[in-house]
Amino acid sequence: MSLLVVGSMAFDSINSPFGEVERVVGGSATYFSLAASYLTPVRLVSVVGRDFPKGTLDMLSARGVDLQGLKVAEGITFQWKGYYEFDLNIAHTVKTDLNVFENFAPVLPATYRESSHVFLGNIDPRLQLDILAQVREPKIVALDTMNFWIEKSPQLLREVIRSVDIVVINEAEVRELTGEFNLVKAARMLMRMGPGRVVIKRGEYGVLHLSDGEIFVAPAYPLETIFDPTGAGDSFAGGFMGYLASRDGAALTEMDYRLATIYGSAIASFTVEAFSTERLQGLSREEIDSRLAAFRALTEFHV
After folding, report:
1. pTM
2. How far apart are CA 288 and CA 283, in angstroms?
3. How many domains does the chain have?
4. Which helix (H) or strand (E) holds 65?
5. Is the C-alpha dihedral spanning 153, 156, 162, 168 positive or negative?
6. Residue 29: which of 60, 54, 64 has the closest Cα?
7. Which residues contact 29 (CB under 8 A, 6 or more apart)?
8. For tag attachment on the chain, is the N or C end more exposed, with fewer CB atoms within 10 Å?
9. What is the CATH number of the domain that holds 228?
């Protein structure tokens, strides 16, 4: 199985109650690729400027991330600056500079067009539609979005949503997109637009995963040390899609989707333990398995 991700690679400048960093590596595709790489090979499509560190690209390659789809353009890499208060579920944007990402027009390498699993990061819906037109017969397509596109391009976004199997979205975004406050009703409303599944990221409150007739709730792992929630949602998506792609063509059951949710939650729980991708870069399979066991213990009970 092959997993394709399209999204941003960036520099982040972050201030939180637990510290401050300037121009550290970030971006949805970066976090997604690192998280998924622990479960399956990844094909990455994005753009960076000449200022993006070669060491990070070498690290991604070493983790099995295929960079044929990465364009290194003349100019400056996408940059985001923001801060968190003690409610770490809310990121406050101070400044966004698209830079080379502003004119990003991805063209997939020939081998990427045969990808079985596709994740469309929270980029312009026009680019998401363009990518879908280039992939031949994917088995599973999932997308993420953000309030900026919900407000700026609602019709195009709905067109993309009609074409995908899974929407991964946070609770504020699904409420804005559907106009429904109740999350279960909002998810059902979103499913009526086309996708068979809606996975709602709720930060420290976990994940709500809905499909036709099924509801699954995964807790967030209760951490004592939290530095930076930036990238946690993208890491969740990477773990989620990475597990599904790793099933190697097997017919997926509802339990597979539930396990994918737990894998995503487990890997994302490491992301917040340090700034940037620092914690994700050095994970071991033993650490992931241990965190999975801890998730099982959180909710296990017998009647």
Report:
1. 0.94
2. 7
3. 1
4. strand 65-73
5. negative
6. 60
7. 5, 6, 7, 8, 9, 44, 45, 46, 121, 234
8. C
9. 3.40.1190.20
